[in-house]
Amino acid sequence: MSYFVHQLADVTTSIIGDNTNIWQYCVIFSGAVIGSNCNICAHVLIESNVIIGNNVTIKSGVQLWDGVSVEDNVFVGPNVTFTNDLVPRSKVYPSAFEQTILKKGCSIGANSTIIAGISIGEYALIGAGSVVTKNIPANTVWYGNPAEQKGYITCDGILLDMLKRDRKGIIHSI
User: Fold this and answer.
1) Half-sphere exposure (CA, 13 Å, Cβ side) for 31?
2) Which of 26, 47, 86, 102 has a beta carbon 3.0–4.6 Å from 9's, enabling a disulfide?
3) CA dist 127 → 89, 109, 113 (Å)
4) Is the pLDDT of residue 144 over 90?
5) Which residues on adjacent β-strands are paired with residue 100?
6) The dihedral formed by the CA atoms of 121, 122, 126 and 131, expressed in degrees to the nearest 10
């Protein structure tokens, strides 16, 4: 296998795909699965029961807790916060952590918070600073606190309004 782990990272998993870069001050637990061609930026923590697909970018300051699954081609912006326990208590652990799924091609903007147990649909876009409290359908755009749907997005990244029109007024199908 051919991947890069910065000398200042603490990586104990052995399941890392080709052409993946893991930068300084990352902590990645044994059992975590990381695909090929990923970029795991500085100061990222990835727990044991986390699966990351191929071509994923995880920017600095993100913690992926047990129960988070990331499919291929996903972007997770800096300081995105995930939860995995809906009723957290100190030293009291659930029998199983909530499962959160980031579907293929979705993007999550910086400083967003993703509440445990939801799914973000394929190619969906979450705007920076959003608080996501429910499942997000594919090809939709959400932002705010709590996040609300503000439009649609094509698989090619063209932003559309609620009537599926682009900035020039052309209607698109998704």
Assistant:
1) 8
2) 26
3) 29, 5, 11
4) yes
5) 68
6) 20
| 25-68 pLDDT per residue, tens | 999 999 999 999 999 999 999 999 999 999 999 999 999 999 99
DSSP, collapsed to helix, strand or coil, labels residue 39 as strand
Contacts of 142 (CB under 8 A, 6+ apart): 124, 125, 126, 127, 130, 132, 136, 148, 149, 150
Element (H, E) at 152: strand 147-153
Domains of the chain: 4-85+96-160 (2.160.10.10)
Residue type, 133: T
Cα–Cα dist 83/129, whole Å: 15
